[in-house]
Amino acid sequence: MTTAGAPRAPTVLVIGGFLSSPPVYGPFRERLLERGVRHVEVAQIWTPDWLLSVRRGGGPIATRAAKALLRAVEVADGLPLLIIGHSSGGVAARVLTATEPYEGRRFAGARRVGAIVSLGSPHVNAREGVRNRWKGSGTATFANQHVPGPFWAPRVGYLSVASRWLAARSEGERDGREQAARRFYERTLPPPHAPIIEGDGLIPVEAALLPGARQLVLDDAAHAPGAGHPWYGSDDVIDEWWQSALETWQDALAARAEAATVDPAI
Question: Across the strands, what pairs with 198?
Fold first, then answer.
């Protein structure tokens, strides 16, 4: 439950998804500021960085995200951050809280993070076990081994947001969009696959819901901008999850306050 004393506005760190670049999140940033956020820092992860991660792994991606975290902390007025990770960015956010080294880099950022909100993030990724696949996809395996579920709760809040916008059948008459979605869903989820899989057009609901976290499934949000349909960061869609995100962050701050005199570990 959120405490009656309203805390100050959060500073938000946005970590984008695979193959994205910071300008993609410009309108999203403005929409968050319109909702009273103190400051929005967008991690400087560019499309070429993602392409390099295909061969070299996700370490440099996580490092860029960590640098953005430190920049955001500088303007956060002493409060832990609210991280919004879109797609692969939601998994990278979890990696930033691990105390074990990830590809030779140790981040241990949990004490700086008040909440992690993931939007269509592949917390389950069956492709990680396939040889010669995208090496950077191993972030989910690492996160699920070392910071599984809501690992730092209640002092870090977790909200995973999914969408059932596009249901894809295994058989029958399907248009091109449904066929493409079905391929993505089956690559993400381990078999056996259900006759109908719901998702946001790229990530199935089952993969996007972090076990043990606060969960929210939207009815009509596409995975990313450019799909010709409102996505998680569209103006009306933000209002479907933003209040839950804010409450998740506030509840974590309240839990820290209650535990501060007993265990100030993070």
Answer: 167
CA 191 from chain centre, in angstroms, equals 24
CA distance 163 to 200: 5
pLDDT digits (tens, 9 = 90+) for 20-72: 999 999 999 999 999 999 999 999 999 999 999 888 889 999 999 999 999 99
**DSSP character for 195?**
S
Whole-angstrom distance, CA of residue 208 vs CA of residue 194 = 16
Which CATH architecture best describes the domain 11-163+205-259? 3-Layer(aba) Sandwich (3.40)
In the chain, where the domains are located: 11-163+205-259
Residue that is written with structure tokens 């946001």 in the block: 200
- Max CA-CA distance within the chain? 61
pTM: 0.93
